[in-house]
Amino acid sequence: MSVTRRGVVKGGAAGALSIALAGSLDGIFQTSAGADTGEAFGYGPLVPDPKGVLDLPKGFSYKTLSVEGEPISEGVVVPGHHDGTATFPARGGHDHFPHWTGGPESPDWPNLSERERGSGRRGQTILVRNHEQSTNGTRAVAPPELTYDPVAGGGTTNLLVDRDGGLVSQYVSLAGTAVNCAGGRTPWGTWLTCEETEGFTGQSKSHGWVFEVDPYGRRTKPVPLTGLGRFAHEAVAVDPHTLTAYLTEDASKPFGLFYRFRPNAHRGGYHTYLKGGELEALNVPSVPDLSLVTEPGTKLRAQWVDVPDPSAKQTSVRKQFESITRSQKLEGAWWGHGKAYFVASFSSKEAGAAGDHAGQVWTYDPRRNEIELQLIFKPGGRFDGPDNITVSPYGGGVILAEDGDGEQYLVGTTRKNRPFAFARNALNGSEFAGVTFSPDGRVLFASRQSDPGATFAITGPWHRLRG
């Protein structure tokens, strides 16, 4: 049964019980930060930002860092379309940041700011951030040794951030890739950046790959990890015990698949996945479309089917199967609590899906070899279009970045899967992206994707989570 906010208000306690049992995320009734009457769970109502940028609960604050178009170095600016992000602990003077040093032995030392001079201290963070562009927009520009295809405008940026979320330095760490949407952090401390494309007009090399980026800046090479397949990649979550990668695909005609890559290597390290492995696709024989599942807590036994041609030399990977489990708009992925979390942003019968919803959050448990529906957004509610996801170190829930209609929120859940609005884009209708915590959990990073793209560092009383 589809339950809307209006139906709950009209139906009173019975409607609210329906939402509680269904685990729906649309059980929060306020429609804007200015009209908040209080959050039932989470950190309380959102407080309107006097600057009109980012509304947060009382006690939380943000810093704006790395805005699209800001200068980085001569001829290089911050690229646009900020997207997926992961964080890594800084190592001080061993990190390779152009125009930055970790010690006074450098001739540049007298010209550095106090923040840059202190950049080797403990508690600092490196962010690796995607830029979801193909040939237009504010391009990622890097030296030839970091550029895959000069025609393409996407890539990644590495940011060094201090303990309080202030930007120390940044540089473009990969260029010449296309539509770098999301990705995933590896257990050996690198970032996998995913191209959400199967190619575009004018390309000089094939696209639709995953690339590996060294957050510390010394080992990155613009070499595709072909074993992970060539398709419209979204995100990847890596099991730290088996090194198996779980990948989402955002595609249509037909809809995309959920994959796993089992590497030949048994020990992790930079370019582990270049050693090859097996790419497989998820199949649940009784469920041709994940939108058919509407009851949170539903568990389904997984089967894994070999992908005949991962490089899609003649046929797109998802078209190589006559019968397979599909989903519209497979988006974010994250590893946490021994499971791979993955998101379906929405589903529409009008677009050819089997059912309607405004977002699903799934988990795959490799020990039980089963997927489970954790959360579902009902159409017509306050929240819709979940995209990037991260597992929160507070309360055992998740934080979702919206890419939906109308107002855009960061949506959190508690340990009991109770939803709350954590932040609202007060500036414009651009989606949120790149939601992730610093390694010590003190700072939440998130980006406004465009108009202009900007990354935020959010701090506050994280342990005060209610519900």
UniProtKB/TrEMBL annotation:
Residues 99-122 are annotated as: Disordered. PROSITE patterns: TAT (PS51318). Coiled coil: none annotated. It comes from the Bacteria. InterPro entries: PhoX, TAT_signal. This is DUF839 domain-containing protein.
